[in-house]
Prior knowledge:
heterodimer; A: about 240 residues; alpha/beta; 6-stranded mixed beta sheet; 10 strands; disordered N terminus; B: mainly alpha; MetI-like fold
Amino acid sequence: MRDVISGVPGVLEAHNLRIARNGKAILEVPYLCLNGPGPTLILGPNGAGKSLLLRCLHGLISPDQGEVCQDGQPLSTGHKARQAMVFQSPVLLRRSVAANLDFVLRRQSIPRAQRKWRIAELLAEGGLEGKARQAARSLSGGEAQRLAILRALALDPGTLFLDEPTSALDPSATQKIEQMVLRASERGVRIVMVTHDIGQARRLAADIVMMQTGHVVEHGLARQVLDAPQSADSRRYLAGGLVT
Amino acid sequence: MQNFASEFNIALSLIFRGDAELWAIVLLSLRVSIFAVLISALIGMPVGAALAVARFPGRRVVIILMNALMGLPPVVVGLLVYLMLSRSGPLGVLELLYTPTAMIIAQVVLVTPIIAALTRQVVETLAEEYSEQLRSLGVSRLASVPVLLWDARLALVTALLAGFGRAIAEVGAVIIVGGNINHVTRVMTTTIALETSKGNLALALALGAILVGIAVAVNALVSALTLRAEREGLRHA
């Protein structure tokens, strides 16, 4: 099984991560290793540092201290080229749906004929057939997020980060996104996804990283974290209590 | 009053019967201003976009200077270009003074800061929105410039039209470097100034009406583009 043992391709590790603003630590993670075979969901209340951790793992933010490693090596341009990220609000280029996908494929120097075929394949994957020539910015919220995921998948990533991709979507649109995420995971893409939806974590997660005020308070198999949380913060959050 | 009415009638007849002299002046005006705007776009757009994404010490000062250059007085530009192109000037050997090329140069100096400054504003707003996504896709700052320019294309057409509006309506610089020579460097604005002073109101009125018509057409085009952009979701927020 791929990605289970530390040191095999795709394993993400954070060592002594620290980010401070105005002298106050807003992210402190002494050690975190994401090496499970299925989707990792980062769960926690607003302001817990989930998105910040995700951006650090993807290399979009450099920590004040510490480092992120992939495959046992500090995050490099080569690693980043095999990562992709989907943001909470999809940032689509002001072009057609197909041109958004083509943009990513062209950057990989894929020949035109192959790109055309790949775009059709991706559109079918996201249920956006027939919308290839439509302006991407005129898509509905769910369709736009599906296109953002397809564009990320067009990079053929080994790791896909998703930052609350369904937070603004209705249940039907959420379900479609979750199915895409699960299919990508089944194809061997490492999924690291931020959510504050406990139900979503239950549906998708193989393992869960529980965060609170910039710290990882618990990391373990989904069933273990959700059904028998070890920390008081996790118990309170999962019970639906106010966590400050 | 009756005089004005009859002059206006003559003006309309000049326009609609296709008076050769009038339309030659209109065509020269369009040729000079369109060339000037295209050259300004080639310089101003990459400069504006690079300034939007680059980060270097003194960047704020450069932006302030560029914005200030948008308000350059045309007569001062005319004077400077005249000094450069005059026989004793550094570019005098090119013998460009009192040619349409000299007028294009003067208009380029006037229009480039407008296009560069507007491009910088448009691209900077878009860059803020795209920044994380483009970095995530592995696009460097430099490589993001053509992406941003293309995605801001509709807003940039508005910048081009603003530059064209400035160029076509300008009189101070082109009269100094062009000399307002009949059949050579006489454009709409300089002809209006000359013919009004001579009392030939009909030609001045005809050219004035065409100039206003061009201004209205340019604004209508901007509105149509903005509407289209909003309808297709291509306009940036």
